[in-house]
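ugh finaly. both done.
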Amino acid sequence: MTTSTRHETAQLHPAGGLVRRPTAGFAWANDLPRYDFGPGHPMAPIRLELTRELVRWLRIPGLVDVPVPDVPDELLELVHDPAFVAAVQAGAVGIRSAEFGLGTDDNPVFPEIHTASSRIVGSTVAAARSVWTGQVPRAVSIAGGMHHAMPARASGFCVYNDVGVAIRWLLDNGARRVAYVDLDAHHGDGVERIFWDDPRVLTISVHESGLTLFPGTGFPYETGGPGAEGLAVNVALPARTRGDAWLRAIDAVVPPLVEEFAPDVLVSQHGADAHGSDPLTNLRVSVDHQLAGARMMRDLADRFAAGRWVATGGGGYTVVEVVPRVWAGLAAVAAGLDPDLGQRLPLRWRLDVSERGLPAPLMWGDGETVTLRPFSAGYDPADDVDRAIVATRHAVFPHRGLDPGW
């Protein structure tokens, strides 16, 4: 998109010059917002609709749509128990609903729950397939990132674990090793559980500590099962951690482990709920910092995973003012661009949002300066974030033959 005034809409700058071929895929189907737990539920489907519309108005160079196919039960059963899938199909009515984590305030049953949940799985598998088969080097599934879903139980707004299914699909189709990095404010417990004892999968979750946030897990000593020691990695950050410290934690833990693991594909989850305005969490990470984190994932994939990167959405409950900015930015980063976050968002999108009676954000970023202070520059034992970093490095790095330092 071009404009005659610098301040009227966001400018997109190709990182490597003019785009001559597709550089990223965007998995989308118009029925993805049918994943809807009803009025008042925090996971409002409008966050997907607004993100899709923003991506359209931005006209991101190099970004192409990836169609989302229906998925058979056999694909879901790569990670989910058949009895659980059958229960979701039946609406999990009656006494067994609690057994399967359905019918709760977090995971209420709705008529299309199986179809809508499986479509999200299809979105992330389609993104993974497009990357693994070489259609695009990177792909985004904004509807995906349902990282709390367990093999036999829905949890934390998540019914089917699309990330787990996509990673298992990659392994079944030739990938030898897959690295998964979860940047949601909540611990990526479902994905970790699925691959707890699988030496082919590295899971790293950088999240608010379970001492202050659901699901109450994800501590440094949780490091993987027999044969996969050191392949489950958890950085438990204190409440109110700000953006620069958040990036410092990622940089101190993720790159050394991903480099040592040498994955064939990098999969990442980008829940927008680490933002300071999110009503369900206690971190203070700006849009600017979250997109810096996305660029870090893109660069890691380029350096250590042959450029193959699959990125998903996830949490995010400031559904109008924050989520579309983070996930549209994620799509732009995946396409190889470095969005100018000091620009206004497209006027047409802002008018569409306002016409819905919603508060339209004006700027792409929050106006925060992003400064990464590498962990190698020094450790402050009085700093809560630095102590969290050290706890994780000491718990995990020796398993991988890495020096934890300090």
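ok and the 2nd:
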Amino acid sequence: MRYLRYAFLAVLGILLISVSLANRGAVTLSLMPDDIAGLVGGNFTLSLPLFVVMLGGIAGGLVIGFFWEWMREYKHRREAGQKQREVRKLEREVTRLKRAESEGKDEVLALLDETS
């Protein structure tokens, strides 16, 4: 399974390198359209290779998607934490009750009761 993962990563790397080499031409990114930039008084432009823009867009989309999913699952994580705290509390209570029940009994019988 490990070799399959390495093979997949190698193929993905070769694919990304070939796409990057094929798209080395420079493109100009503008913050706003020219008409609106004229009204505001300036426009921020940046010239980058096309593959940087493509891979940056993919990476930005992944980051936004992961963050969105993390925020969406917050209620589930909170509920799981509450259930985990409740389980720990109940386990401590069961242990305490078993100890109270086994007081005055033979030690071997108390140990047997505690394990079951």
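summary for the 2nd one i guess: The helical segments are 2-22, 34-40, 50-72, 74-102, 107-115.
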